[in-house]
Target: Bifunctional protein FolD
Amino acid sequence: MNGESTRTITIKRISHYGKPIGYRHLTEQGCDELTQHEANMTAVILDGKQVAAEIRAETAKEVADFVAGGAPPPCLTAVLVGEDPASQVYVRNKARACEKAGIDGRTHRLPADAGQDELMALIAELNTDTNVNGILVQLPLPTTDAVRYDEREILDAIDPLKDVDAFSPVNVGLLMQGRPRFLPCTPHGIVQLLGRSNLSVAGKKVCVVGRSDIVGKPMAMMLAQKTGACGPEVANATVTLAHSRTADLASVCRDADCLIAAVGRPEMITADMIKPGAIVIDVGINRVGDKLVGDVAFDQAKEVASAITPVPGGVGPLTIAMLLHNTLAAAKLQSGR
Ligand SMILES: Nc1nc2c(c(=O)[nH]1)N[C@@H](CN(C=O)c1ccc(C(=O)N[C@@H](CCC(=O)O)C(=O)O)cc1)CN2
Model:
């Protein structure tokens, strides 16, 4: 053998919703690598719409069972301040998704210049309304010449038991401690997408780019938790939380087995920043002209990655699916059923 080490490899083909996703090479050393790249395939496209439809169907079934048990339909109230076109679309889509799942979806609209006091008064009213199980304030809040909202004060005012976005300090703290009440919708959607695609990040290096309260920070926290703390799907990753001030961002990204981009800068993650065979999750939704693009330069990234989410049709649809899930969870929590 000339002193050379041998490498016994078992190749296991894996798939995502019936489509071949690549191969796992199981070596003697116990190393488990996704090496679709070596197999000379372009990345599998992770279909967020399909996974979201599956989760929404499961939630609809659970809602029907809950109501059949004598409970009123869960009620989600969205608060939309101003007329931002994207926010209007998201709120409308949330209402439609609620209706399809058997959830009572309501929307309160306030003018952009309603002001902090009026918005705080509405939150106080919704907190005490026993018919309302979930409350969300659509973000971002508008800024006008006359009015600037204190977003933190508003999110802090939402009753944590009705906080289906999981943005309140109590729910953030519970997640941090590994005993979440509600999981924030976008990171939870990503965990579901990975888990349901049989993509494990346990023991792997994950780099989350972007430290927002909505995605980056909770995402990092969830992936680093022990098995079971944030659901059975994905945990035990070694996580790096990178951001705009990270030194040599490209090499930090390139070191990751799974790269999650949530920075809000169109196509800033280029192919040279991706480790061959890495899983790439694109959370960005950027409007460039009349096109919607992610934070990842998709066409070049898919030649390097083993699996990648598209924009649109990747992470976005999962956000609303997980919101329905949280609304049902809130209704169950409040009814004690
Ligand atoms: N209170 C909240 N505000 C915001 C959240 C949130 O989770 N809670 N997240 C985003 C907006 N958002 C939901 O509110 C959201 C964004 C995108 C999608 C989505 O399905 N995107 C589609 C593309 C849709 C399009 O054409 O614009 C996709 O990616 O395929 C759903 C929900 C900020 N605010």
Summary: The two ends are 66 Å apart (CA to CA).
